[in-house]
Amino acid sequence: MARLLVVDDESSIRLLYSQELADAGYDVVTAGSAAEAVTQLEAGEFDLVVLDIKLKNESGLDLLQKIVKERHDMPVILCTAFSCYKDDFSAWLADGYVVKSSDLQELKDEIRKVLAKKSR
Amino acid sequence: MEFACCWTKKELAPGDCPNIGEGEEELLSAHRRRIVEKCVECPLFTDDLLRFQESGHPLSEIFPIVINELLDLKSQLQSLGGFLNSKTREIKFLHELSLVLQTSVDLDEVLSVAMTAITAGKGFGMNRAFLLMADKEQQALRGYLGVGPRTMEEAWHIWEDVNQSNLTLRDMARLFQKDKLSSEKVKFNDILERLTVPLSEQQHVFNRALRQRKPILVENAFSNPDIDPALVELLGVDSFLVMPLISRHRRIGLIIADNCITRKPITNQDLQSMETFTFPVAFALERASLYERLQVEIDKLTVANSKLKEQQELIVKMEKMALVGRITSSIAHSIRNPLMIIGGFARSLLKSIEQDDIKRNYLETIVLQAKQLEDVLEEVLTYSESLHPALDAWDINQLVSRVRDELSGLFAQHNVSCVLEPESELPKVSIDYRQISYCIKTILTSALGTITGEGKIVIRTWRDDGVVVVTISDNGTPLPPEMVETLTTPFIVTQELGTGIGLPLCKIILEKHGSPFIIETSPEGGTQYIIRLPIKEGM
């Protein structure tokens, strides 16, 4: 079972993702801030990170850079309310980009695709 | 000695002298004037003089000498008076002409006045005149206007009309400009076309006149070795005047005048009169053409000014729109998270609710409404972003392929295959990647909506004359023309968001990219969407 780390400052979203992704067959761990995410990443093994860009006063893109730098084999999918970051150079470091939607099908498809690519 | 003539009487009664007519009663008592004006030419006086000569009087030899000298002087005086009168008329005419020429800045009016002055009986009375203008670009003199009759019949007709009308020169010119200017140009078109002479032909009579800055009276043209036989044949006259039009050292053109109908000889007097006339004509022509060019430039400036004004208004409008865009964008982003949570949990709950549970309807409504709101947000955000396209060079095949992959789940769900037929090695196009992705995505979703059952969508790309063409064809139900119009009507404020502004928005975005948005019947039987994206320069 693939293990996912969901990073979002909104607790309701963390809850929704945990339920839906668990239903889709993933082991889901959540983090509400960049610091918490770093701690989780250091504490355990993950197959993929789902990362929000706006994290209260922190930037998800900074965390993305940090993950890529320290754990370059760790796939990251950016999941955000802003479609405009798609053109941002920093966002290009991510393996996937999904605009937040009440229908999580696109996110699930993206996770499946990225994990399949990783296992190849 | 008795005399037959009344010259000896100081006072006369009316009827005494047969040479004093009505209105000349003053002469009855003006003895000296009567002798000089009437008696010296009276046959009775001549008889008296003969008889006086025969009388042997010592003065009888001298008297006739004095009388003959007096008659000679009188004749000279009369001729000088005639000359003076004609000169006065000429000065009056030139004054009237120069007044008109000085005050007019209308090229057609100047031409009409000049040509009327040459050909009218009240003017120089020539039968026919041609105006040639110097063409700076072509470095040639070109036939511009011809005035006058072409046949004897036409001549009589014109002259009869002119005699009856008793118009001033200016009125005649006005009538000419109003009724005849255009038709005269056409009437002499055959001759005017053949009157073109390059300025480099130094020996041509036209260029000689321009070079010498003096009119030339050509006589015996048919046998004159200095005159081009083709010109003589064209004009069909043995004598004509060539008058250069020069203003401040600039060659404006020249006028040819002749008496092609009456064949009346052209005199040096005619030449001298017209020489005085050509300078104001040249000056007026130059001023009128400069004014005409100035008017063109003013018109251009006016158009540019109004465009500039429109642009300024557009900029203000764009700035306002941009502000509205930023506000809506900020609101939309704030709404997206809660909306996603509401819709997301409703979907989650829906999975665990039985099919016949009444709560299922409520949850389905929440899911549907949340999705619709999300669509509205997407459109609002795309619209606000469409105000400022960020153009860059992109590979259209890669973009189309990526959008198709994004929608692959949706295609599978609707049992529709989406085939990409790209032309390889296409140049990059200058587009806003996100906006064009939105357009392709919207078109594909719209195409999908028209397909019932198993279907097929084909995306083709190819290069065509400075653009890359993208066509998306489906085999769904074709869109009726009125619906196509509605679908592409530009986004208006009264239109509700989330209720199909997708295609109008595509039209706005594509137009901002300089591409038309064409919707027509596809070869597959459904609808075909065509867009033409500009190739990035240097690609």
What does this structure look like?
The complex is a heterodimer of chains A (120) and B (539). Chain A has 120 residues and is α/β, with parallel strands linked by helices. Chain A has one domain (3-119): 3-Layer(aba) Sandwich (Rossmann fold). Chain A is built from 4 helices and 7 strands, in the order βαβαβββαββα. Chain A has helices spanning 11-23, 34-43, 60-70, 105-119, and strands at 3-7, 27-31, 48-51, 54-55, 58-59, 76-80, 96-99. In chain A, strands 2-1-3-6-7 form a 5-stranded parallel beta sheet, sandwiched between helices. In chain A, β4 (54-55) and β5 form a beta hairpin. Chain B is of the alpha+beta class. Chain B is 54% helix and 15% strand. Chain B has helices at residues 31-37, 43-54, 62-103, 107-119, 152-165, 169-187, 189-193, 205-212, 229-235, 268-351, 359-386, 396-406, 408-413, 433-449, 481-488, 502-512; strands at 128-135, 140-147, 197-198, 216-218, 240-247, 250-258, 392-394, 416-422, 429-431, 455-464, 467-474, 517-521, 527-534. In chain B, the strands form 3 sheets. In chain B, strands 3-2-1-6-5-4 form a 6-stranded antiparallel beta sheet, sandwiched between helices. Chain B has a 5-stranded mixed beta sheet with strand order 8-10-11-13-12. The relative contact order of chain B is 0.05. Chain A binds chain B through residues 10, 12-13, 16, 19-20, 23, 81-84, 86-87, 99-106, 109, and chain B through 333, 336-337, 339-348, 351, 367, 370-371, 374, 378, 381, 385, 390, 406, 409, 433-434.
